[in-house]
């Protein structure tokens, strides 16, 4: 039985997600978090920053990782996920900088960066809570349809639908990245808890695949089915009629 919470709208979803994260951090067991980019989690980050300002939560003991990054992109590029994480979240909270490890898209040796990232995750004791968004094509992080489900951090060719979805963030089609670096499904499934955030009209098909409850390699999100710590938070607009 899937644990699905339907939020009336994006604002409610942001509050619920932030409350879930704060409760998790407060349990004394959750310290390492994997964090998503995209439009969906922005409200959650705002709520968390607001709760931090009010002194309701602290990230002093948190270890933060991001899920993915565009390959070849430097952290200084404002379009990078690195910059996104700083702008929307990390710059607004009290996490010590040595406890933040974001994937480097511009590492000279991408394979070595992936291995180093996996070592950092292992050194943190694995991921306690992975917060995920959902791609229109059913991807989680940059685990695209058809990718093997037994990978840790790896380099991946971005799917046509992913590149389409990212097109508005770039000046023209040619500049949309073709390659990404991402935590793999094995790492995500090994997380003690997973909070999956689903919002946006384009996610209807992916959501339906998930709710169908069958593992399907064409819809990477279905790899999470059977995860005991999976919680799904979705906007009500995506509820099947
Ligand atoms: C990107 C990221 C994913 C994210 C997805 C959804 O492709 N790589 O990690 O979940 O976008 O984005 P949005 O929340 O903007 O719909």
Automatic annotation (TrEMBL):
Keywords: Hydrolase. Coiled coil: none annotated. The keyword Signal does not apply. InterPro entries: Glc/Gal-6P_isomerase, Glucosamine6P_isomerase, Glucosamine6P_isomerase_CS, NagB/RpiA_transferase-like. GO terms for cellular component: cytosol. This is Glucosamine-6-phosphate deaminase. Pfam families: Glucosamine_iso (PF01182). Residues 9-224 form the Glucosamine/galactosamine-6-phosphate isomerase domain. It comes from the Bacteria. GO terms for biological process: carbohydrate metabolic process; glucosamine catabolic process; N-acetylglucosamine catabolic process; N-acetylneuraminate catabolic process. SUPFAM superfamilies: NagB/RpiA/CoA transferase-like. The keyword DNA damage does not apply. GO terms for molecular function: glucosamine-6-phosphate deaminase activity; identical protein binding.
């Amino acid at each position: 039985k899937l644990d699905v919470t339907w939020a009336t709208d994006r604002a409610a979803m942001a509050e619920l997600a932030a409350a879930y994260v704060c409760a998790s951090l407060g349990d004394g067991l959750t310290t390492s978090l994997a964090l998503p980019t995209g439009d969906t989690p922005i409200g959650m980050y705002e709520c968390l920053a607001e709760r931090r300002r009010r002194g309701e939560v602290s990230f002093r003991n948190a270890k933060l990782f991001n899920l993915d990054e565009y390959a070849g992109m430097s952290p200084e590029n404002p379009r990078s996920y690195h910059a996104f994480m700083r702008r929307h979240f990390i710059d607004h909270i009290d996490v010590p900088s040595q406890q933040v490890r974001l994937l480097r898209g511009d590492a000279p040796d991408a394979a070595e960066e992936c291995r180093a990232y996996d070592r950092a995750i292992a050194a943190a004791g694995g991921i306690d809570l992975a917060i995920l968004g959902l791609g229109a094509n059913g991807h989680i992080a940059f685990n695209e349809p058809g990718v093997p489900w037994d990978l840790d951090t790896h380099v991946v060719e971005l799917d046509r639908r992913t590149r389409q979805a990212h097109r508005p963030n770039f000046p023209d089609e040619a500049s949309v990245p073709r390659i990404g670096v991402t935590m793999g499904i094995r790492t995500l499934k090994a997380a003690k808890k997973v909070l999956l955030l689903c919002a946006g009209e384009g996610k209807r098909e992916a959501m339906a695949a998930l709710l169908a409850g069958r593992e399907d390699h064409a819809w990477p999100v279905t790899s999470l089915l059977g995860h005991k710590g999976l919680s799904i938070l979705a906007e009500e607009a995506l509820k099947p009629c």
